[in-house]
Design a protein that fits this description.
Elements (H helix, E strand, L loop, with lengths): L1 H4 L7 H9 L22 H14 L12 H4 L2 H4 L5 E5 L7 H7 L4 E6 L2 H13 L9 E5 L14 H10 L14 H7 L7 E7 L10 H11 E12 L4 H5 L5 E3 L2 E3 L5 E3 L3 H9 L4 E13 L6 E12 L3
Parallel strand pairs: 1-2, 1-4, 2-3, 4-5
Antiparallel strand pairs: 5-10, 6-7, 7-8, 9-10
C-alpha cells in the first residue's frame, strides 16, 4: 500500500496550476527573474560544499527514507538480467541504491556523490542491510558530475565497442575491495564499459540550471546504446516550492535554502527540452501528484514530482 500511494493521481496538476497562478500571495513565484545581486551566483565548489555540510548534519542516515516505491515506478530495474549495471548519481546515504540492490540480487550499482563522508555512510548503511552479496555489487566513487564530469573508466568508448562486438563487459576486472574499485580500474587502464541504467533521483534539481545540460550530457555519455535514464525530481508548484520566500529565489523556478543548498522545480517542457537536447529519446514523462497528510497536525500537503524515462538511441 505504501508503494501504491506514490502512483495514485490524487489531484490534477492543471487544477493546482490554476489555483496557484490565481493566488495573489504566490505571485512572486511566477515573475521573471532578473538577478541584480552578485552574491546569488555561487561558484561550483560552493554548491558542493553546501551539500557536503548538509550530509554531515544528517549523517545518521535517518533523514532519508528508503525509496522502495522506485521499483514500482521503474520495474526495469527488477526485470533486467544478470550483470546489468546501474549508475546512481548523487546517491546520498544510499536511499535509492538500497531498494535497487534488494529488488534484484544480480544487479550491480555504481554510486557517486560529491561528499566522501556521505559515501562512507552509504557503504555502512548498505553493508548493514540484509542484501545478498552486496559487497560485490555496490561500488562507490566521489564525483561532482555537474563540474568535473564522470571518470573515463565509467564509460570508455573502446570497451563499449568491444561489448557490442563480443557481448561481454569488463566486470571481471573489478576488485572486491569496495571503496577502491573505481580507482583500481582507472589505475589499471581499464573500465566497466558503460552502464545499462542511470538513476537521477532528486539530484538534478540540486544542480544550477545553467549546468544542467552539461550534466545530462555526461549521463548520456556513460550509458550503453539502448540504455535508460530513470528520472524523478521536484515538479512545478510542489508544496516545497511555494514555501520559499521571494528573497530565496536565485533564478526562475530556482531557490536557495538558508544552508546554501539549492532546488529547482521542473515543468514537463523543461525536462523534455533538457533531455532531448542531448540526444535522449522520451519514453515516459508525467507529473506525479500526491496528496499526503501530516499525521502530527492533520494538514494536507500537495506534492508534485516529475517522473521520466529516457533512452539512449541504439
Amino acid at each position: 500500500m505504501e508503494a501504491a500511494e506514490y502512483f495514485s493521481k490524487d489531484f490534477e496538476w492543471e487544477e493546482l496550476r490554476a489555483e496557484v497562478e490565481n493566488d495573489p500571495s504566490l505571485r512572486c513565484h511566477l515573475l521573471p527573474f532578473e538577478s541584480s545581486n552578485p552574491s546569488s551566483i555561487k561558484a561550483a565548489d560552493e554548491d558542493s560544499a553546501a551539500w557536503k555540510r548538509f550530509h554531515v548534519r544528517h549523517s545518521s542516515g535517518k533523514f532519508f527514507k528508503e525509496r522502495r516505491y522506485l521499483l514500482k515506478e521503474f520495474p526495469e530495474l527488477v526485470s533486467c538480467g544478470e550483470h546489468y549495471k546501474v549508475l546512481e548519481v548523487g546517491c546520498g546515504n544510499g536511499s535509492t541504491a538500497l531498494p535497487i540492490l534488494r529488488g534484484n540480487e544480480h544487479i550491480i550499482v555504481y554510486a557517486c556523490d560529491c561528499s566522501s563522508e556521505t559515501l562512507e555512510k552509504a557503504e555502512e548503511i548498505i553493508a548493514a542491510a540484509t542484501v545478498a552479496s552486496v559487497r560485490h555489487r555496490f561500488h562507490t566513487f566521489c564525483c561532482d558530475f555537474s563540474t568535473t564530469g564522470f571518470p573515463e573508466w565509467l564509460g570508455c568508448h573502446t570497451c563499449q565497442e568491444m561489448f557490442l562486438q563480443k557481448q561481454q563487459n569488463c566486470l571481471s576486472d573489478v576488485k572486491e575491495n569496495n571503496s577502491n574499485d573505481a580507482y583500481s580500474l582507472k589505475e589499471r587502464d581499464c573500465c566497466i564499459g558503460g552502464v545499462d541504467f542511470v538513476t537521477l533521483v532528486f539530484t538534478l534539481s540540486a544542480v544550477p540550471f545553467q549546468r544542467m545540460p552539461t550534466s545530462i550530457k555526461e549521463c548520456f555519455s556513460v550509458l550503453k546504446p539502448g540504455g535508460m535514464l530513470l528520472f524523478r525530481d521536484y515538479g512545478l508548484y510542489d508544496m516545497t516550492m511555494l514555501r520559499f520566500e521571494s528573497d530565496q529565489r536565485v533564478g526562475f523556478r530556482e531557490y536557495m535554502r538558508s544552508d546554501g543548498t539549492r532546488s529547482y522545480f521542473f515543468c514537463l517542457d523543461t525536462v523534455r527540452d533538457l533531455f532531448l537536447g542531448v540526444g535522449f529519446i522520451e519514453l515516459e514523462l508525467e507529473y506525479c501528484c500526491v496528496k499526503s497528510v501530516n499525521r502530527r497536525n492533520g494538514n494536507s500537503m500537495l506534492r508534485v514530482w516529475v517522473h521520466g524515462k529516457f533512452q539512449k538511441p541504439v
